[in-house]
Specification:
Pfam families: DUF2231. Keywords: Membrane, Transmembrane, Transmembrane helix. This is Putative membrane protein. The protein is mostly helical. It has one domain (about 20-135). Helix content is about 75%, strand content about 0%. It has six helices and no strands. It has helices at about 15-40, 45-70, 75-80, 80-105, 105-110, 115-135. The longest helix is centred in the middle third of the chain and has 28 residues, at about 45-70. The radius of gyration is 18 Å and the shape is elongated.
């Protein structure tokens, strides 16, 4: 007699993928807060902090993007909505890269667009993290 294995629980992220994805949020948050501090105090070091935090967040987001690309080729991950997650994470990385290029300018030339980009990238990172960690509801009898 054959046994049918019923998957009652949703497929979640690979743990290493989850670490890289979750690491992007505090780094982009730190960059946004550094930009806010720079906007209030005009101490150039805050702009340097933001640049380094954005660079670190882009490294982590790039690795998470590779994991998300691999998940696109897995049918059970595609079923949980990994296409939308990949698109949002890709948009986060692209706008984060533009933000890094903007922060490479002279410190006085960074504001106010640098702060606006940091806020948008942080919100996209939060959305990508939420989409990555969400688990769709499993229908059927318990």
């Amino acid at each position: 007699m054959a046994h049918v294995i019923d998957h009652r629980y949703s497929v979640t992220l690979y743990p290493l993928h989850a670490v890289f994805l979750a690491g992007t949020v505090p780094l982009f948050l730190g960059a946004m807060l550094s930009d806010m501090a720079y906007a209030k105090t005009f101490h150039i070091q805050w702009s340097n902090f933001a640049s380094w935090l954005i660079a670190g967040a882009l490294v982590l987001a790039g690795i998470a993007l590779v994991f998300a690309l691999v998940d696109l080729f897995r049918p059970y991950q595609r079923a949980r909505g990994s296409v939308l997650y990949f698109i949002v994470l890709l948009a986060t990385w692209i706008l984060g890269f533009i933000n890094a290029l903007w922060h490479a300018r002279d410190a006085w030339a960074v504001m106010p667009m640098g702060l606006v980009l940091s806020v948008v990238v942080f919100l996209l990172a939060c959305l990508a993290t939420w989409l990555g960690f969400r688990t769709p509801r499993v229908l059927g009898p318990l």
